[in-house]
Amino acid sequence: MQDAALIVYNVYVVKEENMTIENPVLTGPVVGDRVRSFDFHYMRDLDGPRSCYMEGEVTAIVEHPHFGYNCYEIQVDRVVTAGKERDEMPTTIYPPVNGTPTTMGRITDGVEVI
Question: What is the pTM of this model?
Answer without folding.
Answer: 0.74
